[in-house]
Amino acid sequence: MTAHGTRADENADDLDVEEALALVKELPDRTPAPRTSSSHDRSPEGGRSGDHRHDATAWTEARAIAERAPRHATGSRTGYLTPVDMPLASALGLTLAAPLTALTDLPSFDTSAMDGWAVSGPGPWDVRDKGVLAGHAGHAPLADGEAVRIATGARIPPDTTAVLRTEHGRVDDVGRLHATGATRPPHTVTHGQDIRPRGQECRSGDQLLPVGTPVSPPVLGMAAAAGYDTLRVVPRPRAEVFVLGDELLGEGLPHDGLIRDALGPLLPPWLRALGAEVTAVRRVGDDEQALYEAITSSDADVIVTTGGTAAGPVDHVHPTLRRIGAELLVDGVQVRPGHPMLLARTKKNQHLVGLPGNPLAAVSGLLTLAEPLLRTLAARPAPEPYTLPLRDAVQGHPYDTRLIPVAVRGERALPLLYNGPAMLRGIAAADALAVVPPGGARPGEEAELLDLPWASGGIGVCFT
Ligand SMILES: Nc1nc2c(c(=O)[nH]1)N[C@H]1C(S)=C(S)[C@@H](COP(=O)(O)OP(=O)(O)OC[C@H]3O[C@@H](n4cnc5c(N)ncnc54)[C@H](O)[C@@H]3O)O[C@H]1N2
Ligand code: MOO
Questions:
Q1: Exposed site from 110, 209, 393, 439, fewest CB < 10 Å?
Q2: Ligand 2 nearest atom to the CA of residue 339, by list position
Q3: Is 241 in contact with 370 (CB distance < 8 Å)?
Q4: Which domain holds residue 326?
């Protein structure tokens, strides 16, 4: 183990969440205060005043356009992908496209609810030699005054009138079963006691869950119990990611003006958390012809590009979309960071989300355009909007909405620093993005929060 590794391990022992948060709550003294050309990354506005575009779409409208886009493309009322039958093991996280209707009564036979004895009539009872275990076929009918040992979940023999729990009965020296005083009134057993009758939970044909239900672990269990091997679900939209930029390295330290590709690792799991199946992540470089070929040969439902959205000499996304004859649905959004983001229809049933290259700007585009688009394609429910008061003031952009990484502590959202468009340090410690309207927010002011998919449920839950 290297010296560096040892130190990191030692730190891990005493580095708790609050300490980790302290790393992004306050700017260290060494932070340069003056606004230089590089101050763009730290400036609260996140952009120059001159780059405000009056033709850009308002943030809420951009989200609404992305949500509606698949409906307009297909002419269908819902816009979601054609449903498929999926084995239970593959259906987690998808949405039911058909109601879950019971294929059987549940329980499908009269069942013992307890370990004990199936009894017939009033006691005491003669106990039959052989008991009844769960999963075994039924036994001969009980005669009045007869009892048989029974396990929880076992089918009760015909003519059983009740189940007497193990702890409520006693077998005497001559093999006769007596109800003990634990039952009320003592020595009586109520008719039907501790028997789960067939169809208690549902009858065959009952609707258990409606269309649109997200398939969770209990839904899988319910479906199996109700007799299903496969579920009719809306499949995951297939997404292909094209990472643009000749300056990007796949490994090692930055050098000679080259930097690490942060979006190649960040986007696939995030897209998956938003409901997509990522079929490929390809580095395309700054090559207009390569981008053209990559887009026109893709059969993904959603193409996601990173970088090349602005007006620089190698920003090839706009010219390529023009060459393809794509329909631009959103071309720039009044949001910081991320304002050059775009949404286009490249062909019937295929959309392209153009994310800006700056990493936090790309995250902003992911939540503004990709999230609602994927949500409609996958028929996922919209997240419940909610607000929390901001602990600190957040400086606003004069015209645009700002998305600011926040940590949620108690009932307040704590704005994190390092929220510049090129920075991931704030979002990496965040639970949500706060939506800050033009003009900013005062301390204590309520802000809408966009939850980050893993913040509430844990990574294993949302990346299934
Ligand atoms: N004249 C103007 N220039 C810029 C404007 C503008 O309005 N007028 N907007 C700025 C803003 S805001 C953003 S955001 C960026 C958007 O630029 P692009 O989408 O064209 O992205 P690139 O130029 O390719 O890259 C920007 C920046 O991000 C770095 N980058 C790109 N890809 C990655 C990656 N996968 N991992 C890490 N970093 C990445 C890239 O090296 C650049 O530093 O445009 C501004 N300029
Ligand atoms: O501020 Mo840009 O909007 O970095 O995306």
A1: 439
A2: 3
A3: no
A4: 37-76+236-377
Q: Which ligand places an atom closest to the C-alpha of 397?
A: 2
Q: Could you read off the pLDDT of 273-289 as tens digits, one per residue?
A: 999 999 999 999 999 99
In a domain, 14, yes or no: no
DSSP secondary structure of 48-80: -GGG--TTSBPHHHHHHHHHHHHHHHH--SS-P
CATH number at residue 169: 2.170.190.11
Q: How confident is the model at residue 314 (pLDDT cuts 50, 70, 90)?
A: confident
| Residue 138 sits in the same domain as residue 227 | no
For the Cβ of 421 lying below 6 angstroms from any atom of ligand 2, the answer is yes
Average pLDDT along the chain = 88
Q: What is the mean pLDDT of residues 29-49?
A: 38
Residue 369, domain CATH:
3.40.980.10
Q: Are residues 219 and 127 in the same domain?
A: no
Q: Which amino acid is at 401?
A: T
Per-residue CA distances from 209 to 96, 99, 228, 347 (Å): 9, 6, 13, 35
- Among the atoms of ligand 2, which is closest to the Cα of residue 338? 5
Q: Is 361 in the pocket of ligand 2 (CB under 6 A)?
A: yes
| Alpha helix stretches (DSSP H) within 185-255 | 217-225
Q: 146-150 and 238-243: which strand pairing?
A: unpaired
Of the residues 332, 361, 377, the one at which a domain ends: 377
User: pLDDT tens digit string along 172-218?
Assistant: 999 999 998 655 555 578 999 999 999 999 999 999 999 999 999 99
- Would 9 be classed as within a structural domain? no
Residues 146 and 94 in one domain: no
Q: What is the CATH number of the domain that holds 228?
A: 3.90.105.10
pTM for the full model? Answer: 0.85
> What residues line ligand 1, using a CB cutoff of 6 Å?
47, 51, 243-245, 247-248, 259, 261-263, 306-312, 315, 337, 339-340, 356-359, 361, 421
The answer to whether residues 268 and 86 touch, using CB atoms and an 8 Å cutoff, is no
CA of 316 to the centre of ligand 1 (A): 12
Residue 339, ligand 2, Cβ within 6 A:
yes
Q: Residue 71 in contact with residue 79, Cβ under 8 Å?
A: yes
